[in-house]
Write a structure and sequence with these properties.
0% strand, mainly alpha, 2 domains, 450 residues, globular
Length: 450
C-alpha cells in the first residue's frame, strides 16, 4: 500500500483518520501505532514482526542504558549501546548485504537509522529513555515516514508524542501539502520516468548521444520529484496528525555546486551522517587531509546505505572526487559566476545519477560511451534522430520539471495560498492527481528499494 494509490487515499486514510480524531487524547498514540502496524502489514506482512521486535529491543536497551547526564556514562552504558547498535545494524547488514536473506524488508534502512539515532542520543544524555513502549513504537513506526523517511530524531517529536492537538488550519495545510506532493509524484515523476523506461527497453547500445543525455536528465528529474513528492506527502500527513516532519529537500537543482546540492538533497540523511559519523570522526577540525578521510568514510557509508552493488560505490566515489575538488579549488572558481555554477551542476549531477541508476557495470560503461561517443562507438545500429521523437513527446514534462525545480513556484504559491487563486490551484492539481492515478498502473516510490 503506497501513498499514491486509491487504496491508501480512499480506504486506509479516511478510516484511520476517523478513529484517530475521535479517540481521546491519551489514546492517539496507540491508534497511530496500531494504524502504522496495519499500514506496514498491508505492504510487508512477512516482516512486520521484525519491525515490532526492533521497537522492543531498543526500548529495553534504552531503559537499561539510560542514566542522568550528571552521572556520566560508564562501562555498562557503553556495552549496552554497543549491543543495541550491533543488533540494529546487524539486522540491516543481514538483509541488505549478506545475500542470505530474501526480499529486503520495506523501510529497514530508514527505520534502522532512526532508531540508532535514538539509542545514541539516549547514551549521550541528549534525551531520556522513553518510558512508554507505545510512544517509542509510535515514534519509530509512524506511517507517514516509516517506509522512506524523512529520518526524524526523537528529540524533534518528543514533545508532540506526549501532547499534541490538530487544528483545522493544520489539517488544511497538511492536506494541501499532501496533494502537492502527490502531484510531484504522479504528474511529473511517473510520467517523465517513462522516458527512462523506454531507453532501457531500447537498449543502451542503440541510442544516440542526444537521447542518452535526455535519459540522464529524465532520470534525474524522476528521482527528484518522486522522492521529494514522497517527503512532501509525509510532511502533509504528519501535520494532519499533529507532528512537524522536517523538510527533506530545498530545491537542490537550483544549487551552484555539488557541495550545495548535497546540503539541499535528502537533508535528513545528510544530517544523520554529519551528526553521528562525520563530526564524531573530527569533521573538518583536523586539517584538509583528515577532512578528506572523514568525507571518504561518510560517502562510502552513504553509498553502502543505498546498496552493496558496485554501481553505488562508483556513484559515491564520483561524488567524493567532486566534493574533494570543490574543497581544494573548484568552489572558489565556481563562486565567481552564478551561471557557470548552475551549468556545472546540471552537467555533473545527471552523470552521477546514471551511475546510481544502472546497476550492471558493463551496461553502465555502454551508457557512458553513448553520452560521450568520442570515447568509442558500439557496434549496434544507432538511430541518430531517435531523440526527435522523444523530445516531441516529453518536452512539456522537461519544461515542467525545470520550472518546478526552482524555488519560484513555491514563492508564488506562498503568496497566494490563502487566497482563492491558491485554493483553485490546489484543486486543479488534485483533479490531475486523481486522473493520473486512475490511468496509471501501480508505481511505487523509488526509494522503497532502499
Amino acid at each position: 500500500m503506497v501513498f499514491s494509490s486509491f487504496e491508501f487515499l480512499f480506504r486506509f486514510l479516511p478510516v484511520f483518520l476517523f478513529f484517530y480524531y475521535t479517540a481521546p487524547k491519551n489514546w492517539k498514540n496507540f491508534i497511530l501505532f496500531a494504524g502504522s502496524i496495519v499500514f506496514y502489514t498491508a505492504g510487508e506482512a512477512e516482516y512486520v514482526l521484525l519491525l515490532f521486535v526492533c521497537v522492543l529491543v531498543n526500548y529495553l536497551f534504552g531503559r537499561f542504558m539510560y542514566v542522568n547526564i550528571d552521572e556520566g556514562r560508564g562501562v555498562k552504558q557503553t556495552v549496552l549501546l554497543t549491543l543495541a547498535l550491533c543488533y540494529d545494524f546487524g539486522v540491516l547488514f543481514y538483509f541488505k548485504y549478506s545475500g542470505l536473506a530474501g526480499r529486503l524488508p520495506l523501510g529497514i534502512s530508514f527505520y534502522t537509522f532512526q532508531i540508532a539515532a535514538y539509542i545514541i542520543d539516549v547514551y549521550r544524555g541528549k534525551v531520556p529513555a522513553e518510558k512508554s513502549f507505545i510512544r517509542l513504537g509510535t515514534y519509530l513506526t509512524m506511517f507517514p515516514q516509516l517506509i522512506a523517511g524523512p529520518i526524524i530524531n526523537y528529540l524533534t517529536v518528543r514533545v508532540s508524542l506526549k501532547n499534541r492537538a490538530v487544528t483545522l488550519a493544520q489539517f488544511e495545510e497538511g492536506l494541501r501539502t499532501l496533494i502537492l506532493g502527490l502531484g510531484a509524484k504522479v504528474i511529473i515523476a511517473d510520467r517523465i520516468g517513462l522516458l527512462w523506461n523506454n531507453i532501457q527497453s531500447i537498449g543502451f547500445e542503440s541510442i544516440s548521444p542526444q537521447l542518452a543525455w535526455m535519459g540522464a536528465f529524465a532520470y534525474s528529474l524522476e528521482l527528484y520529484f518522486d522522492f521529494a513528492g514522497y517527503s512532501m506527502m509525509a510532511m502533509g500527513l504528519g501535520r494532519m496528525l499533529g507532528f512537524e516532519i522536517p523538510v527533506n529537500f530545498r530545491h537542490p537543482y537550483a544549487s551552484r555546486s555539488v557541495s550545495e546540492f548535497w546540503r539541499r538533497w535528502h537533508i535528513t540523511l545528510g544530517k544523520w551522517f554529519r551528526e553521528y559519523v562525520y563530526i564524531p570522526l573530527g569533521g573538518n577540525r583536523r586539517g584538509k587531509g583528515r577532512t578528506f578521510i572523514n568525507l571518504a568514510v561518510v560517502w562510502s557509508l552513504t553509498a553502502l546505505w543505498h546498496g552493496a552493488d558496485c554501481n553505488f560505490l562508483i556513484w559515491g566515489a564520483s561524488l567524493l572526487v567532486l566534493l574533494g575538488l570543490e574543497k581544494l579549488f573548484l568552489l572558489r572558481f565556481l563562486e565567481k559566476s552564478r551561471i557557470l555554477g548552475h551549468v556545472y551542476l546540471l552537467f555533473v549531477v545527471p552523470l552521477t545519477w546514471v551511475a546510481f541508476a544502472v546497476t550492471d557495470i558493463g551496461q553502465l560503461g555502454v551508457y557512458f560511451t553513448r553520452l560521450f561517443p568520442f570515447f568509442g562507438e558500439t557496434a549496434a545500429m544507432v538511430n541518430r534522430l531517435d531523440y526527435v521523437k522523444y523530445m516531441n513527446s516529453y518536452w512539456p514534462l522537461f519544461l515542467l520539471g525545470a520550472v518546478f525545480s526552482t524555488p519560484y513556484p513555491v514563492r508564488i504559491y506562498e503568496a497566494v495560498k490563502k487566497k482563492w487563486a491558491g485554493t483553485i490551484a490546489v484543486a486543479l492539481i488534485l483533479v490531475l492527481d486523481l486522473y493520473y492515478l486512475a490511468i496509471s498502473t501501480n508505481n511505487p516510490f523509488m526509494y522503497f528499494n532502499f
